[in-house]
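Action item from last meeting closed. Structure (168 res):
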């Protein structure tokens, strides 16, 4: 819901905003890193490319997310694009799961690329990055990474998240 203020600008509440951005279909991604506490990961629905030259990725991470500390400490991260049928992986890494830390990686089979960040073996794509810059904005860390390795799988279809559920 929006309301106007005295300057004519709208005030937008978070719940309504989430409903609005939920109208876009996005690929489900898991962002991973390995810090001193072991592997860590999060459901990263706001992961995207910045530029292809040089290859650079961006992911927004809520500052309250425990895996952010691992990304900042390790100075690397991987973005895993999940295939259809990987809903169990999403659930393991969602904030709604009772799984924490390294226990989340018991779902599925994981390997690594150049940085050592966990890469889901069945991912349709994995982008491995070294941390370049972090911009903090309104309780979120916008994490920029230089791509140092990647893997693409031409088989399979993406797990697409839309309006709070998955498209088949």
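Sequence:
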């Amino acid at each position: 819901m929006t309301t106007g203020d005295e300057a004519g600008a709208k005030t937008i509440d978070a719940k309504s905003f989430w409903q609005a951005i939920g109208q876009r279909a996005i690929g489900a991604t898991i962002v991973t890193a390995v810090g001193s506490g072991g592997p860590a990961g999060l459901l990263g629905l706001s992961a995207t490319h910045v530029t292809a030259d040089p290859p650079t990725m961006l992911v927004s991470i809520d500052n309250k997310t425990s895996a952010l500390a691992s990304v900042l400490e390790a100075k690397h991260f991987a973005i895993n694009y999940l295939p259809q049928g990987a809903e169990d992986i999403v659930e393991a890494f969602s904030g709604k799961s009772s799984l924490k830390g390294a226990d989340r990686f018991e779902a599925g089979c994981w390997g690594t690329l150049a940085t050592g960040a966990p890469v889901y073996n069945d991912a349709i794509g994995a982008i491995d990055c070294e941390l370049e810059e972090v911009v903090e904005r309104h309780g979120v860390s916008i994490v920029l990474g230089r791509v140092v390795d990647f893997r693409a799988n031409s088989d399979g279809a993406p797990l697409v998240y839309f309006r709070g559920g998955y498209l088949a």
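Note appended to the action item: Helices lie at 14-21, 67-74, 87-93.
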